[in-house]
Amino acid sequence: MKSFACGDVVPGCDARWVCSTEDEILHQVHEHAASRHGMQELPDEVVRSVRSNIVSVG
Questions:
Q1: Cβ(29)–Cβ(19) below 8 Å
Q2: What sign does the dihedral 57-43-31-5 (CA atoms) show?
Q3: How far apart are alpha carbons 30 and 25 in whole angstroms?
Q4: What is the dihedral of CA 44, 58, 20, 22, to 10 degrees?
Q5: Cα 42 to the chain's mean position, in Å?
């Protein structure tokens, strides 16, 4: 399992995900970024930052 906390990239955001794969997390983050942060596209820099903050759990 993989885990990611949006607050690791966007200070003050308390959204978190636990998914089977990094790709699943990135899909959820993309939807969240569009609806909560107004980001229709995720710049490569943001994707790299998200990937570097995904941790293995369990």
A1: no
A2: positive
A3: 9
A4: 10
A5: 10
Separation between Cα atoms, residue 56 and residue 37, nearest integer Å? 25
pTM of the predicted structure, to 2 decimals: 0.91
pLDDT digits (tens, 9 = 90+) for 5-48: 999 999 999 999 999 999 999 999 999 999 999 999 999 999 99
Cα-based torsion angle of the residue sequence 14, 30, 1, 54 in order, rounded to the nearest 10 degrees? -70
* Amino acid identity, position 30: H
- Tell me the β-bridge partners of 56: 2
CB-based burial label for 4 (10 Å; 0-12, 13-18, 19+): buried
